[in-house]
Protein 1
Amino acid sequence: MADPTPSEVRDYIAQGLPCEHLEVEGDGRHFFATIVSAAFEGKSRVARHQAVYRALGDRMREQIHALSMKTLTPAEWAEVSAASSHHHH
């Protein structure tokens, strides 16, 4: 099985989880996803990650250990965005 591209991983997550914002970076081996979803409201970090794994399903069972993610609610994302807009990377 070919390694998925970041855009494929992004599509997989988007299909299974309603996201306000979704970014996936990676090199085919390791991925980093920033996922903002109202579905995360009131959920622990572990429960959020489980929701993402469910969205990915079997397609990434092999690669899932190579996915690190930041899971945020829209409110948390707004705070992060407001905080980071003062610092230019």
Protein 2
Amino acid sequence: MRPSLLIPALGLLCAATAAQADDDRPEHFEGERSETLEEAFENLREYNAKLHAIIERDQLTAAEMSEIHQLSYTLENALERIEDEVEDLAEVLEEVHVASEEMDRETVRKQAPAYLTGSESLYSR
């Protein structure tokens, strides 16, 4: 997915997740934390693979539904970490954008490399 499409897509996904929040939901789990962007992408890969394996089965048992419920917490944590990183990256890019309009070369030279490093970490996976 192009980085320019990643921000709106993540926003919609997080909004949908938040909209489903309800106090009457079954037992809650903490899920694996994603402390870094690297951990977030690793958890996303690993737990997406688990989810994919489960939903490929003909019938989804109660135990499998419970397993999906539990692993969704880790996926939500990973997406939250990615969203936080993308939001921070968008702020840095905005600094570059405004500095370029104002001919502020010092800020562009300082912030553009930070933006590039961060954005490359999103699509180099």
Protein 3
Amino acid sequence: MSLRDLLRDETLASMSRSERLAALCASRLYFQRPDSPGFLVSETEAGPVVPVFTSFEALGLFAGPCGWASTTVADLVELLPEGVRALVDPLGPRTFVLDAKALEATDAQGEHDGGA
């Protein structure tokens, strides 16, 4: 299941919180790779972000031909430098910010709700 699938209302409605979190963490994101190891970080008014995409095609529309890499959501939030968040699908209609705190809050809420 892709992150794009998870964002569709009908898919989300049929899943428990723990199922959504597990699927989200396993989803693959694509990002532009700089010449040196690390992430291409953009400074914004809201702080530093790494633009990431739910598809290779969306990355191509954003960055054109470029070096790229992909990883799971779970790995991405662990690899991001302190204070840097991921901006998912910045050109899309359902852009959102992703960071470790957001995943932890979702996980904690799922545990509080009994996983449902």
